[in-house]
Amino acid sequence: AEILKCNEGSKVVKKEARNILSELAKDDYYRILIVEAGLILVPIIGAAAYKSLTPASRSWPSLPDGTEFERYSSVPSRFGASELLLGLNVQDEDARLEEAQKNAIVGRTTQQFLARLGAIDTEEGSIPDSQPTMKQQSTFLPWIDGVARLVLILGLEDVSALERAALSIADACINEHMRVLFKEAGALKNLVRLLEYDAEAVRLAAAHALEKLSI
Fold first, then answer.
1. How many domains does the structure of the chain reveal?
2. What's the Cα-to-Cα distance from 89 to each of 106, 107, 112, 120, rounded to whole Å?
3. How does pLDDT run across 67-88, given as a tens digit for each residue?
4. CA 16 remoteness from chain centre
5. Domain range holding 24?
């Protein structure tokens, strides 16, 4: 787990560590230990799937209650660089924010920026979108990035991605700390919306995730 949380290190070693953890995560006991160690299992769905992000998902950085930070420019940057810088420096913007709120803002801003660049799902050397096994692939991300990525996926239009993200959220809600992280990241409103989704598999997965979040 520590190998994957570190930004440095050999890609070969990280790949091997990821493969080992993927096997261990098939067992509920080890899956819980992996989450406790700071990693979340996140589905790889391909950068193309994020093209369906709605304008609301590309919004200016805001607090969990929807309150936006002051805009210094009315003209958005091409790939959201201004939003990224503001989101990453939220710790200096308002010292009154709780840690979970800060993490939610930083994680969401980073993941939205990667999606705009088309660089999301490529950080771990994921397989091409055209490969049929894409829907079975997953990776591990640190808490902040993993929570934000899963909530971001809940705003997409890919049925399989929605189901897998909701189930991943349910699996990651092993304690109150994780439940707070997902709630602050905006998972609740997205999951409630999915309760009316056309696909039954998505509705069931969303209900399961909400049940885990409400414990």
1. 1
2. 8, 12, 15, 21
3. 555 555 555 554 444 455 554 5
4. 22
5. 2-213
